[in-house]
Specification:
With 492 residues, this protein is mainly alpha-helical. The chain has a domain at 11-249. Helices cover 72% and strands 0% of the residues. It starts with 10 loop residues before the first helix and ends with a helix.
Length: 492
């Protein structure tokens, strides 16, 4: 499964432009889906009153399977089909209460095995150029199917005696309430949900209730026909943005390759400040690849009529609409211009954050929630040391950002000084970007020795600062609290 076994039809084009065949297949398949298949599917299938719901499921599944065969090959497509089959057997064909969560453990275990196999079979190359490995669609499928299994679990609890009392046991603000299935899914619905062509390769992951609502035209109807004239090609602007970001990323990758940072000799030849600049550009270039995949996936879903901004029940502004979209996976400007670590994290990989809440965070006691979500996220991303170091630094940056905001942020905001507040905002944006770009370097270097060399050359600066800030701010708070208590006693 490690080698790409997709179609070699575009091999001459890949050789002509010196690009990987799997990436050329992926970009070509995406272009075909966006500009031809998705608009036809929206116009003649989804919005048609004569096409049955089962036919919509079958057509979208067929297109998704053909796409997987073209990009990943037969063996990898069969491997993904096995995941769906196990899920169907346990959830649908063996409708006994405990069995509907068994596929979740199998799916996560299979994904962990695949990650371990990649580590054992991979070479020591630290080239961070993204490759279209089957682990990518597998991660998406694991998210969707595990979320479905737990939504079915909530449905079974509701159906088996608790009835109206079940929702009272789940707080109203929990996402679980929104994603409880209204009925047990059919085999065709599970297969179509797994292989829907819009998100079958790199996402975005979406959830079962949103998908069924889309296929059954519940979120379209008259409102979609009224809004169809506003945008003759929904999703085109997001796709063009994705292509622009991809071009920028490719240019930067050619100027700032990861192979240099992975070279210990090169690291010691560079100054600290140039290395900071170089690694920032390299991290941004790698980030562009993710932005391309997610924004293009969102545009592709919109082109097929799924998750269109104009079809959502929104508030007063489009920003709220975009964040509520079931296929939006990134708020890019919020990420790049965020003033605290929490905002940065909440603007990246949005649907995975939803998944972590549905499957882990909302299902364990409060004291274990962060540990459960963090552990599941590590397993889902993979077992490479660079990923673990990056997530550890994310956690440190989150604590440091929270401490700084509590110590200085509130005072700056209450000072009502525009100059002071503007300077504070600039400082926050720069510091957050430095921390997350630093973590992004570790994430993309992946291997332990390459990460350790980079940390040594940068004197472990960012991790030390992130560790020190909460300690210093806690000391300041301890010295201030007694003064407030003493003055209050004197006044009494």
């Amino acid at each position: 499964m490690d080698a790409i076994q997709g179609s070699s039809l575009l091999l001459p084009i890949a050789n002509r432009f010196n690009q990987r065949l799997d990436q050329v297949n992926y970009i070509a398949a995406n272009a075909l889906l966006l500009f031809i298949i998705a608009p036809l599917y929206r116009k003649h299938i989804i919005n048609s009153k004569t096409v049955s719901t089962s036919s919509k499921h079958k057509i979208s599944t067929f297109i998704g399977i053909i796409t997987l065969l073209f990009v990943f090959g037969l063996n990898n497509a069969l491997h993904l089909a096995c995941l769906t089959t196990i899920c169907i057997i346990c959830v649908k064909l063996i409708p006994i209460f405990p069995t509907n969560i068994i596929p979740s453990f199998y799916l996560i275990g299979a994904l962990l095995y695949l990650h371990l196999a990649r580590v054992l079979l991979a070479s020591n190359s630290t080239n961070a150029t993204a490759s279209m490995h089957v682990a990518i669609p597998m991660c998406i499928m694991v998210e969707k199917l595990t979320a479905l299994c737990f939504s079915v679990l909530d449905f079974e609890i509701y159906k088996n005696g608790k009835k109206s009392d079940s929702k009272s046991e789940i707080p109203e603000n929990y996402l679980r309430n929104q994603h409880i299935v209204k009925k047990l899914p059919t085999v065709l619905e599970i297969v179509s949900f797994s292989f829907m062509f819009c998100g079958v390769m790199t996402g975005p992951p979406f959830y079962f209730n949103d998908f069924v609502k889309y296929v059954e035209n519940d979120d379209l109807g008259e409102k979609s026909t009224k809004n169809s004239s506003k945008s003759s090609f929904p999703g085109l602007s997001k796709a063009l943005l994705a292509y622009s970001v991809l071009i920028i990323g490719k240019i930067l990758q050619s100027k700032f390759p990861w192979s240099a940072i992975a070279d210990e000799t090169w690291l010691h030849e560079q100054s600290f400040f140039y290395l900071t600049f170089y690694s920032t550009c390299a991290a941004f270039a790698a980030r562009c690849v993710y932005v391309y995949a997610w924004k293009f996936g969102e545009g592709l879903c919109n082109a097929a009529g799924f998750g269109n901004d104009e079809n959502l029940e929104n508030d007063e502004n489009s920003e709220t609409t975009n964040k509520n979209s079931p296929v939006c996976n990134i708020n890019w400007l919020d990420y790049e211009l965020s003033t605290n670590a929490r905002q940065t994290i909440n603007s990246w990989n949005l649907q995975t954050i939803v998944w972590l809440r549905l499957v882990a965070f909302e299902r364990v006691p409060k004291m274990y929630r962060n540990v459960a979500a963090f552990s599941l996220s590590i397993v889902w991303h993979g077992v490479l040391p660079g990923y673990w170091l990056a997530f550890g630094l994310f956690h440190l940056a989150l604590n440091a950002s929270k401490s700084l905001n509590q110590l200085f942020g509130n005072g700056v905001r209450t000072s009502k000084s525009r100059v002071l507040e503007g300077l504070w905002q600039c400082f926050c944006v720069v510091s957050v970007q430095v921390c997350f770009n630093y973590a992004g370097v570790l994430f993309n270097l992946r291997h332990w020795q390459a990460c350790l060399n980079f940390l040594k050359r940068t004197y472990f600066a960012v991790p030390i600062i992130c560790l020190t800030i909460p300690l210093l701010t806690s000391f300041v708070k301890k010295t201030e609290i007694p003064k407030k208590i003493n003055t209050s006693k004197k006044s009494e």
